[in-house]
Design a protein that fits this description.
CATH topology of the largest domain: formyl-coa transferase, domain 3
Number of strands: 22
Radius of gyration: 31 Å
Number of domains: 3
Bound molecules: adenosine-5'-diphosphate, magnesium ion
Strand order of the largest sheet: 5-4-3-6-2-1-7-8
CATH superfamily of the largest domain: MutL, C-terminal domain, dimerisation subdomain
Number of helices: 21
CATH architecture of the largest domain: 2-Layer Sandwich
Shape: elongated
Length: 590
């Protein structure tokens, strides 16, 4: 075979194969163009899932009449001129490929009126795929791009299209993402003549929140923490879901870098790490985050459809994301969080509005007695300074309230300003112990205590070897274990926090953790895992009777402890039934 030059039409069709996978890709490219043109209003009209028609109208800066034809030719762009400009590009587009690609696989009409022009002009293609001469068009400032019969001349691609409904749902997703990335832009989406999405430009924070609620899920904001943090040349802001609002799929994760939707492994990893020990196994966090940074520090030219980016200093970005998100999660206390999965998943019908006024009217005498007891307890506990966000409620009651009773040796019932609080005492204690162990480890070293009677342990030879090799790791987590024979160990010291637990089985579990995850992972991860195992041992077991004072002490500890809404495995530690919810259960006030 001899070599020959491909026709420009075929070259464009090949290029189109990379960027235009389905109708939603056309919508994405056209929306990006409108955003780059500074539009504040964009209307999208779609027919038959986008295959028959996609029409996008914007009020952006428009295209100079002399540039209309050029806009449709490949590698023609107004966005960059040099490699230098590519390296700090701030626009969404820059490849000059989209319009040319789309024009090669569909029937395209382009009409535009530049902001300084006195009229609009339009061009389109004839049956032989020749561009018509520009014709006058009645238009206010802005651009209309009309794409008909997508893939009409590439039957192979057309065959891969799914049902109209599926294709439209992809368009809907793309539009929602872009609407989320540019809250200041009003967007309307119509399918077969029906309005599917209508968003007003949102500039105030309330409007933004409304948009997030409309686009994502109305529940999300109520179960999330706001983030707004600047440092090291980055600005990260947005919302992260509370651990209890986790999802079974990674389907509510939005991350924008300088207004660009990004799917990036580094980002996913940093977020996962931040949620590491508050998320129940296999669950996924929900988040909507905006990262703003110097465009020169991001390489956007790594993917033809620009789905991915590469951070030039990936470690810095990872650290910044991890630290910010982790810090925000640690700051969550019972006072400001709505707890746990149970609220949204299990108790579907329950309302969640706290009924403070009702509580105040009907507060029983008994509660005042408890309040007095609590104050007395506080007075004797002088060593503990309450942290700033442990603010008492209107009645001087702490956020998790005062203990009333223990249920089946498993749950603590307590009363707070808004109603009834239920605490899983083992789960809660486990988190408290875990956080303390971590804190001791980070601030200084773990406080240890010798066992009155050192505990002898029979183990296998390889376990004994492992214990010997891991002496320094054991020492770091506050365990002193010596080998006394080929298959014998003795436990001499344990962390003071765990002094009442069964030292033998603790050491066995730690050994099996080390055997399984041992040396390959980084020290901190291993240590955290060991602490989790240890905390589980040291925590109050089910069926242990607690006095009211002990229960109250536990509640106060929870209020002071980071991430105390979940145990180390991500299970909720407490939940609440407000008086409104109780009233509803008993059909009161109807
Ligand atoms: P790119 O966006 O990578 O520059 P495109 O093929 O998408 O390439 O668009 C080519 C050029 O057409 C753009 O650089 C821009 O100047 C112009 N253009 C396209 N769409 C619009 C629009 N909606 N408003 C104003 N100019 C537009
Ligand atoms: Mg473009």
């Amino acid at each position: 075979m001899r070599i020959h030059q491909l026709s420009p039409q075929l070259v464009n069709q090949i290029a189109a194969g990379e960027v235009i996978e389905r109708p939603a890709s056309v919508v994405k490219e056209l929306l990006e163009n409108s955003l780059d043109a500074g539009a504040t209003r964009i209307e999208i009209e779609v027919e038959q899932g986008g295959v028959a028609l996609i029409r996008i109208r914007d009020n952006g800066c428009g295209i100079h009449p002399d540039d209309l034809v050029l806009a449709l030719s490949p590698h023609a762009t107004s966005k960059i001129r040099s490699l230098d400009e590519l390296e700090r590009v701030a626009s969404l587009g820059f490849r000059g490929e989209a319009l040319a690609s789309i024009a090669s696989i569909a029937q395209l009409r382009l009409a535009s009126r530049a902001h300084d022009a006195d009229r609009g002009w339009e061009i389109s293609f004839d049956a032989n795929h020749r561009v018509s001469a520009p014709q006058p068009a009645a238009l206010t400032t802005g651009t209309v791009v009309e794409v008909r019969e997508l893939f009409y001349n590439t039957p192979a691609r057309r065959k891969f299209l799914r049902t109209e409904k599926t294709e439209f749902s992809h368009i809907d997703t793309v539009t929602r993402r872009l609407a989320m990335s540019h809250c200041g832009v009003g967007i309307t989406l119509r399918h077969n003549g029906r309005v599917v999405l209508q968003m007003q430009p949102a500039t105030q924070i309330q409007d933004r929140e409304q948009r997030v609620a409309d686009l994502l899920n109305p529940e999300f904001l109520a179960h999330s923490v706001t983030i707004d943090h600047e440092g090291a040349g980055f600005h990260l802001w947005g919302w992260i879901g509370l651990p209890g609002f986790s999802r079974s799929q990674a389907d509510m994760q939005y991350f924008f870098v300088n207004g660009r939707t990004v799917r990036d492994r580094l980002v996913t990893h940093a977020v996962r790490q931040a949620y590491h020990d508050v998320l129940y196994h296999g669950r996924h966090p929900a988040y909507l985050l905006y990262l703003e940074m110097n465009p020169a520090a991001v390489d956007v030219n790594v993917h033809p459809a620009k789905h991915e980016v590469r951070f030039r200093q990936s470690n810095l970005v990872h650290d910044f994301l991890f630290t910010t998100i982790h810090g925000a999660l640690r700051g969550v206390r019972p006072a400001d969080s709505t707890p746990s999965t149970t609220q949204s998943d299990v108790a579907g019908q329950r309302g969640s509005a706290p009924a403070r006024s009702i509580v105040q009217q009907s507060m029983p005498l008994q509660l005042r007695d408890h309040a007095a007891l609590y104050t007395a307890l506080q007075a004797t506990e002088t060593a503990v300074t309450p942290p700033p966000n442990q603010e008492p409620g209107a009645d001087g009651l702490p956020p998790l309230g005062l203990a009333l009773a223990q249920l089946h040796g498993v749950y603590i019932l307590a009363q707070n300003d808004s109603g009834l609080v239920m605490v899983d005492m083992h789960a809660a204690h486990e988190r408290i112990t875990y956080e303390r162990l971590k804190e001791e480890w980070q601030t200084d070293s773990v406080i240890t205590q010798p066992l009155l009677v050192p505990e002898q342990l029979r183990v296998s030879r390889s376990e004994a070897d492992l214990a010997e090799e891991s002496a320094s790791l054991f020492c770091k987590v506050g365990l002193e274990v010596d080998r006394t024979g080929p298959e014998a160990l003795v436990v001499r010291r344990v962390p003071a926090l765990l002094n009442r637990s069964d030292a033998g089985s603790l050491v066995r579990d730690v050994l099996s953790d080390v055997a399984e995850h041992g040396r390959s992972t980084r020290v901190e991860e291993t240590v955290n895992r060991l602490f989790a195992t240890m905390a589980c041992h040291g925590s109050v077991r089910a069926n242990r009777r607690l006095s009211i004072e002990e229960m109250n002490a536990l509640l106060r500890d929870m209020e002071r402890t980071a991430m105390s809404g979940q145990c180390n495995h991500g299970r909720p530690t407490w939940t609440q039934l407000s008086l409104t919810e109780l009233d509803r259960l008993f059909l009161r006030g109807r």
